[in-house]
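Fresh eyes needed here. Have a critical look at this protein's tokenised backbone.
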Amino acid sequence: MPKSQVRKKKVYTPPTDVRPTTAASTRKPSPVWLPVTAVALIVAGIGWLVIYYLSEQQYPVASWQYWNLAVGFGAMVASLALLSRWR
């Protein structure tokens, strides 16, 4: 049985005037302080909440009452905002 011929496809090259510029290659890497700060905020937020619950709402700041929860969760949300900028 004879072999069939292989068809060669043309390689597509987009026009030069329509080519998008690659913004990803021009971006600089993230600074070193960014992930370090984000991890520190996560640890601080969790630590704040653990101290608040284990001290039966006496520490870190007794007069803030339930706003201590906002501080702990706010620190963790701030770390997520920082990590969204990490490249």
Helices lie at 33-54, 67-83. Residues 17 and 53 are 62 Å apart (CA to CA). The mean pLDDT is 84.
